[in-house]
Amino acid sequence: MLIAKPGSTAIPDSDLLDEGLPEIDAGEIEPRFRAVVGRGGERRGIRLERIYWDGLGRMSASGRMSTSDLVHYTASQMPESGNLASLLRVLSLKWALRRLDTVEDISSLANVNAIIQASPSPTILLTRDRKVQLFNEPFLSMLRQRLPMGNAEQLTRGLRFSIDTQIDEALETLGRNKGKTLNTGFTITVGSMTMKGQINLALAPTHEKPMLIGYISRY
User: Fold this and answer.
1) Distance (Å, rounded) from C-alpha 219 to C-alpha 217?
2) Average per-residue pLDDT in the chain?
3) Are residues 10 and 2 in contact, defined by beta-carbon separation less than 8 angstroms?
4) Strand, helix or coil at 202?
5) How confident is the model at residue 73, as a pLDDT?
6) S-S: 2 plus which of 10, 43, 107, 149, CB 3.0-4.6 Å?
7) CA-CA distance, 29 to 40, in Å (whole number)?
8) Measured distance CA(167)–CA(162) in Å, rounded
9) Domains of the chain (ranges plus CATH)?
């Protein structure tokens, strides 16, 4: 199936999935009926898609309340002409978006840069295509010490950085082993000069794209 707007080029579904859009499971959109009993014994019959029930469950657990308490809270805010199921859907999405905003703020590139700058050891942010996107002052000091080439711009402009492990393999290994690090060798080349050493890699806590934080342990 192709998805397109009038006058635009159709985009294959597979391309959209490559952009990070999730697949929709048939069970997620099937309405499910539940009877919810409030504190005063009031019984409400509610029909929602499974994904909204899942969202309300996560919201309840986060707020340390029961789903029935959450429904009671929502019903208390409902206008006379309102629809409780619709209000619960809005509440579920609003809560999820607020959480998403918080996570994206914490995992922004600016905060990743702060983590790198706070490290006392030479530290870099390495992209999937082997580019050093960010680095700290200890990393620059290391380059000046081992590869004397004038100013910082000269050092970093022609710098080539590679690790002994394939980056895709490192990303996959660290993705499987949450909370772990991976030690491997590295090579830095600037012009005709080369230096080697060891680096500890960790998944960068950023949502923007898969990247690695590298803490140089020996050089």
Assistant:
1) 7
2) 85
3) yes
4) strand
5) 85
6) 10
7) 31
8) 9
9) 24-106 (no CATH), 109-218 (3.30.450)
Express as a percent the part of the chain with pLDDT over 70.
Answer: 87
Task: Answer for the pair 198, 182: CB distance below 8 angstroms, yes or no.
Answer: no
Average pLDDT over residues 157-186: 93
Which tokens sit at 142? 């290391």
Report how far residue 36's alpha carbon sits from residue 84's, in angstroms, rounded to the nearest whole number: 12
Global pTM reads 0.71
DSSP assignment of 23-61 equals: PPPGGGSSEEEEEEE-TTS-EEEEEEEHHHHHHHHHHHH
Q: Which residue has the tokens 């905003």?
A: 101
Give CA–CA dist 64/45, Å, rounded: 23
Task: Return the SS3 of 19.
Answer: coil
Beta-carbon neighbour count of residue 134 at 10 Å? 19
Given a contact cutoff of 8 angstroms between Cβ atoms, the answer to whether 85 and 93 are in contact is no
* 98-132 pLDDT, tens digit each: 999 999 998 999 999 999 999 999 999 999 988 99
In degrees, rounded to 5, the angle at the alpha carbon of residue 113 between the alpha carbons of residues 107 and 117 is: 135
Q: Which of 146, 209, 210 is nearest to 172 (CA)?
A: 210
- Closest to 59 in 3D by CA, of 28, 98, 32, 86: 98
Tens-place pLDDT, residues 69-85: 888 888 888 887 778 99
